[in-house]
């Protein structure tokens, strides 16, 4: 069934879930598709996007399960299932980007000449056309770990919403072309909170529960602007992206690998929880040492030596750190980053680098 709302991408309004198997249901969609649920108040709309990365399925799994409950939201609720092509590429639900495509969550800024850029433009137009009260972009982390939210600036509305889904909010000043940056380039309603919800690792059952709770609460709340933030929410600001230097080699193992510039501990994603102390070995460096890593801030300054150090060939935090998005996937680490980090400040719950 098509919606009367003007939309660039296909729309299904109040669709039945005809497939018990989520992959069969995904394959029945005509590419990127809006799943739109009628609300008690249809003049207002809230937006959730999911599956921008084909290997981050928790938002999709939660949506499939939640739709079977036949929910009736307080407002119109529009859910975008975005990167269907990447998700269906064999082996299913394992490929971050579509074949011959780009990372869709880096395409919400120019250039838009290729298929990924065209799709990002279409998504942006459709979100703006809905005049949303809020926009939540649902993802999985690239390694195992707890759920957290990411925003582009401090905003009490974002903090209030995020604190109902997770215990930590990351405020980043990096501009990478992600969906949550759209309010900087498009006419969004004033005060509309936009943020990313990282539900945890793709293989963690708890990640689906985080996502389904986001659907339920966003559907059930009568007013998203009157929510109060949980005072226990931890806010970390201005994280650094730890990346490989150009041309550096990488592996994951329990011991240093011969010929590798960087060998990260094979379970470094365990550091996504809590504080990582300076005595924790994150991995090992080759003969070129720290020159094979970089941690540039939003101004382009390399801060790697303020963040990490080498001791006896091992890679260690220079001081207590909170790590997140630490991955054990070599290709993701090479193409994106190894992890993000901020200095820990448990006394205040807010850290600024």
From TrEMBL:
Report what the protein is called.
Answer: Succinylglutamate desuccinylase/Aspartoacylase catalytic domain-containing protein
Database matches in InterPro entries: AstE_AspA_cat (IPR055438)
Picking any one GO molecular function of the record gives: metal ion binding
What taxonomic ancestry is recorded? Answer: Bacteria, Pseudomonadati, Pseudomonadota, Gammaproteobacteria, Oceanospirillales
Q: Which keywords appear in this protein's UniProt record, sorted alphabetically?
A: Hydrolase, Metal-binding, Zinc
* Source domain of life: Bacteria
Q: Which cofactor does it need?
A: Zn(2+)
Which residues are in the Succinylglutamate desuccinylase/Aspartoacylase catalytic domain? 50-143
